[in-house]
Each structure stands twice: as structure tokens, then as C-alpha cells.
Design brief:
This protein has one domain (10-128): 3-Layer(aba) Sandwich (Rossmann fold). The chain contains five helices and five strands; from the N terminus they run βαβαβαβαβα. The protein has helices at 20-32, 46-53, 69-77, 94-104, 116-128; strands spanning 12-16, 36-40, 57-61, 85-90, 108-111. Helix 1 packs across helix 5. The relative contact order is 0.18.
Length: 129
């Protein structure tokens, strides 16, 4: 159950992506849209970071060499609040991404070709679903 004292706080997003440049871009865009953001490029050990941060949404890059986002999703599901949305994130075509997200039980999917406003809108929509 989410912490009631955080209800009025900025939405929290944890981003896992092995591309440092991509990670910084996403972090900057989300912060400019009013999100509190934490990030890591390392999937190994990320479950402890996610648990400590208590995000509303975890945005997982699908193509991480050490541990792909869709495999990591199952591990994170065990340590996050039930209300935390786990979302796959990839430059893959929309249909492939949608099918992969459905196959692994993700709460959603977002393509990487986005602008900050659209990304923020999608994340907020997923938080309400």
C-alpha cells in the first residue's frame, strides 16, 4: 500500500536503462515535468534501490545485456508495492513491445521515441490505471 504521506508529493519514477545518455535524458525530461526521479544503469541490485525509493512507476529498458527488463520485471514485482506500475520501455516497434509487455505481465509499455510532455502524460495515465 502506498505511503499516505506521499499522496500529494511529486510522482516518483525509477528508471533502469543501461544507456547512460538515454538515462540522463529521461531523468531531465521527467524532472522538468514535476516527477521525482531515481535511476540506475545496473539491473543487478536494482531491486534494493527500487524498494528503498518506493516509486509509483518503474520504467524498465527492455534491452539490457546483463538482465533484460522483461526478466527483471518478475523480480521487481516481488519487492514493489502492489500499486507500483512496472512499465517496459524500448525503441522496438509498438506491436512487438505491446506483445512482450503482455507476455511478461507488465502494467504498460512506452516507446522511446517520445517528447517529455507525452512521456509524462503516459506515466501519469498508467499511475491512475
Amino acid at each position: 500500500m502506498p505511503n499516505p504521506s506521499r499522496q500529494a508529493a511529486a510522482p516518483r519514477v525509477f528508471v533502469i536503462d543501461d544507456d547512460e545518455r538515454q538515462l540522463r535524458l529521461i531523468e531531465s525530461m521527467l524532472r522538468s515535468e514535476g516527477f521525482e526521479v531515481a535511476t540506475t544503469t545496473e539491473p543487478i541490485g536494482s531491486s534494493n534501490l527500487v524498494r528503498a525509493f518506493e516509486p509509483d512507476v518503474v520504467l524498465l529498458d527492455v534491452h539490457i545485456p546483463a538482465l533484460s527488463g522483461d526478466r527483471l520485471l518478475g523480480l521487481l514485482r516481488k519487492v514493489t508495492h502492489k500499486s507500483t506500475r512496472l512499465v517496459l520501455h524500448s525503441a522496438a516497434d509498438l506491436e512487438s513491445l505491446r506483445e512482450r509487455a503482455r507476455a511478461v505481465g507488465a502494467d504498460g509499455w512506452i516507446q522511446k521515441n517520445f517528447d517529455s510532455g507525452r512521456l509524462a502524460t503516459e506515466l501519469r495515465r498508467l499511475m491512475l490505471s
